Amino acid sequence: MSGDFSQVQENLARMLEVALETTLTESSHQGECNFRREQAVNEFEMEHCIVLTISSFRFRVMVILHLSFDDRMRQFIADLTDTKKQETDDEKLLDWLLEMSNSFCGHVKRHLQDTCPPLGMSTPNFLDSACLSLDGVVEVAHQAHVKMTDAYGGEPLFGASVLVSLLDDADFKINAPQAVSQEGGGFESFGELEMF
Q1: Euclidean distance between CA atoms 65 and 47, whole angstroms
Q2: Are 50 and 124 in contact (CB under 8 A)?
Q3: Between the CA of residue 163 and those of 24, 79, 134, 140, what are the distances in Å?
Q4: Which residues share a beta bridge with 38?
């Protein structure tokens, strides 16, 4: 494997932070993103998750966006989309979250392109967090988990996890991602997140 185990873990965690911050910035989020690292997927106390996978011939990656579909999340989405919370139904809010998770997973996929360029990505699945009992189901070689709060440091708004399964450590590498502010002062557009 390229680099030691702890460096891979650190790069994965940093990749999650950069991918989530980039995704939210592209969707007009103006606030500061603060991150806290977690050790395991079961440390998230959020009601729901959106699960996507990235696959290659050499490894599989499960990408998870943790969230609670509550009034705080509804207000967050309404603020980003310049709509009133009470004027937006749950289906439109969920559509926005699924599009956001697609964009987030797309950023993760781009960070992994150096490892194995032919990568496939699944569609997002909105699930109850109770579905994330992975003990004995997935053998995880590497994992990273982060929680994101706003500048006021309240309860986490989003969590993100990445779980990597592979047959051979030599098949997986990840370079240290650049901070959002180091990515040229702007973002390459990969599609706007809009309410339908």
Answers
A1: 11
A2: yes
A3: 22, 31, 10, 6
A4: 145
CA distances from 147 to 3, 160, 179, 181 (A): 25, 6, 17, 20
CA dist list (Å): 121 to 53, 63, 97, 177 = 6, 10, 17, 20
What domains can be seen in the chain, in order of their start residue?
Answer: 5-172 (3.40.1550.10)
Q: Which two tokens stand for residue 77?
A: 């989405």
Amino acid, res. 63: V
* Res 92: pLDDT: 86
Helices (H), the chain: 5-26, 71-80, 90-112
Q: What is the per-residue pLDDT across 91-106, written as a single tens digit (0 to 9) for each?
A: 888 999 999 999 999 9
∠ Cα 60 174 55 (to 5°): 20
Q: Which two tokens stand for residue 21?
A: 């911050």
Question: pTM for the whole thing?
Answer: 0.84
- What one-letter code names the amino acid at 66? H
Q: What is the C-alpha separation between 41 and 64, in angstroms, rounded?
A: 9
Q: Is 90 exposed, middle or buried (0-12, 13-18, 19+ CB in 10 A)?
A: exposed
Q: List, in sequence order, every residue forming a beta bridge with 37; answer none if it has no partner.
A: 146
32-77 pLDDT, tens digit each? 788 999 998 888 889 999 999 999 888 899 999 999 988 888 888 8
Q: Which residues pair with 48 in a beta bridge?
A: 67, 128
